[in-house]
Amino acid sequence: MQTALFMCAPEHFGIEYEINPWMSLERQPDRGRAKTQWESLYRFLTCDLDVDVKLIAPVANLPDMVFTANAGLALDKKFVSSRFRHKERRGESEHYEAWFKQRGYSVHTLPGRLYFEGEGDVLFAGEADAYAGYLIRSDVYSHAAVADLLGARIVSLELVDPRFYHLDTCFCPLSSESVVYYPEAFDSYARDVIKANFPDRIEVTEQEALQFVCNAIIIGNHYIQPRGGSENLRPALEARGYKTHEFDMSEFIKAGGATKCLVLKLMETTKSTRGYK
Ligand code: ARG
């Protein structure tokens, strides 16, 4: 059985505010094209890979709700809801919380006023460890609270480049040993931590990173990414037995997101990993 994913169709997607360097009110996405791009990803996941994708109904005036990775973290019927740094996205949370509650999840929020942006900033690498980004969106102290709630070990990594404001824009663990990442998005201590923890590292160039190639969904040996990264990343992945699948994500990149941001994993630890198998 596959781990399920959680997505939201781009019915109300658009750029109505600017909360990251990619977003400009002057550069609106084409909604029709966004719909086609989202649907081809959805179809690939559900039809070709047979992934169970659960959908939440899109809500008007919440144009970033399509980026469900930021809803929170879902693990074994526990949902840790995000606390968005920007007020523009805070209205999404009540809809996510209601969806998870209705499906029998216990819904948790973080203590204090800690900002936390869900799977955008927390990625599991294999079974035991999760890596979490902080500074630009999530607060570092949120990691300890999330670790407590989920009973996981979390390794914190400082993000320093505003273009790579969520961990999933510049870091993609393949397993507990291997990672794809853009080193310059991290401070030097985080780079050392990554080196110490991952014996096998695929470093992408700035040009590849700007195409969001680290923003990938991994299902088994499939690496599902936006277009790009052919010079360096694709051969490195193929050498490790991965099959890459590229999707045109041009409209979502205008809002600072791509393939990985469009999905949230509904993880279950009863399987051999917290991610997919
Ligand atoms: N416009 C959204 C924001 O700035 C994009 C979110 C992308 N999500 C992600 N997981 N990186 O919050």
Question: Features of this protein?
Answer:
277 residues, globular, binds arginine, alpha/beta, L-arginine/glycine Amidinotransferase, Chain A, 3-stranded mixed beta sheet
Topology diagram in text:
Blueprint: E1 4-8, H1 31-48, E2 53-56, E3 72-75, E4 78-81, H2 87-90, H3 93-102, E5 106-108, E6 122-125, E7 129-134, H4 140-150, E8 153-158, E9 171-173, E10 178-181, H5 188-197, E11 200-203, H6 206-210, E12 217-219, E13 222-226, H7 233-239, E14 243-247, H8 250-253, E15 264-267
Parallel strand pairs: 1-2, 3-15, 4-5, 7-8, 10-11, 13-14
Antiparallel strand pairs: 1-15, 3-4, 6-7, 9-10, 12-13
Description:
This protein is of the alpha/beta class and 277 residues long. It has a single domain (4-267), classed as 5-stranded Propeller (L-arginine/glycine Amidinotransferase, Chain A), CATH 3.75.10. Helices cover 25% and strands 23% of the residues. The protein has helices at residues 31-48, 87-90, 93-102, 140-150, 188-197, 206-210, 233-239, 250-253, and strands at residues 4-8, 53-56, 72-75, 78-81, 106-108, 122-125, 129-134, 153-158, 171-173, 178-181, 200-203, 217-219, 222-226, 243-247, 264-267. The strands form 4 sheets. Strands 2-1-15-3-4-5 form a 6-stranded mixed β-sheet, sandwiched between helices. A 3-stranded mixed β-sheet has the order 6-7-8, with helices on both faces. Strands 9-10-11 form a 3-stranded mixed β-sheet, with helices on one face. Strand 3 and strand 4 form a beta hairpin. The chain is globular. The relative contact order is 0.18. The structure holds arginine. The site of arginine has 16 residues, from loops.
